[in-house]
Amino acid sequence: MSIKLRLLLSNIAMIVVPIVLFCIASGILMVVFLGDIRELAYLLPESHSYHKTVQKDSILFFKLKEKTVMNPTELMSKEYLHSIEKDLREIKSGLIVRDNKEIFYSSPILRKVKAVDLPPFGETSSMRNLEQIGTQTFAIKQYDFYLKDGSKLSLFLMRDASPWNKFVKTFFPILFGLCLLILIVTNGLLTYFMSKSMIKPINRLKIAARSIKNGNLEHSIQAIRRDEIGQLTEDFEAMRLQLKESFEIQKQYEENRKELIAHISHDLKTPITSIKGYIEGIRDGVADTPDKRAKYIQTIYTKAVDLDHLIDELFLFSKLDLRKAPFHFEVVDLKNYLEDYIEELSFDLKKMNVNIHFQIQPEGDYLVQTDREKIKRVLSNIVDNSLKYMDKDVKKLEISLTSTIEKVELIISDNGPGIPEDSLPFIFNQFYRAEQSRNKLTGGSGLGLSIARMIVEEHQGTIQVENKLSAGTKITITLPHTICPEVTSS
Question: Between 34 and which of 39, 123, 215, 235 could a Cys-Cys bridge form, CB atoms 3.0 to 4.6 Å apart?
Answer without folding.
Answer: 39
